[in-house]
Design a protein that fits this description.
144 residues; single chain; mainly alpha; 7 helices; two-stranded parallel sheet
Length: 144
């Protein structure tokens, strides 16, 4: 009887942990990710959490390349700074826009979006952030 009670207690303690792990491993679908990315393009004055935005960009799959690549290119071409939401911490390396642009470059390489090369090249020339410039130049060599 004590053994059964012990196993029941273990099960009760482990069940929530298993559910949390399952929820954490659930990947949002590309349509939802695209929708969250589209906000930055469609509403440039909207407050955004740049960390959630970079996570959405990182989560894009190849299945939506035709929709994702043009959005990501528009992010690369954006010049106005992102307006960070109050719940978004300040980045340490570069401002939020440049962090998002770096994620966009990574996603474009992952999507093998060669059509993004001119926008990446323009960004490499225009940015004052060495880290972003280096990533852009690296991406250009990967896409060619």
């Amino acid at each position: 009887m004590r053994m059964n009670a012990f196993f029941a207690m273990c099960l009760l303690l482990l069940l929530p942990a298993g559910l949390a792990a399952e929820t954490a491993n659930t990947k949002p679908d590309d349509d939802k990710l695209l929708q969250s990315i589209r906000v930055v393009v469609d509403a440039p004055q909207a407050k955004v959490n740049w960390i959630e935005l970079t996570e959405a960009i990182d989560g894009l799959g190849a299945g939506k390349k035709d929709e994702a690549a043009p959005l990501l290119i528009l992010i690369l071409r954006r010049e106005s700074p992102l307006i960070s939401s109050e719940d978004a911490p300040l980045p340490g390396v570069m401002p939020p826009l440049e962090m998002v642009q770096s994620a966009a470059i990574e996603a474009l390489v992952k999507l093998q979006a060669g059509e993004a090369a001119p926008a990446i090249e323009d960004l490499a020339r225009a940015t004052k952030f060495q880290l972003l410039r280096e990533r852009a130049l690296e991406a250009l060599s990967e896409l060619r």
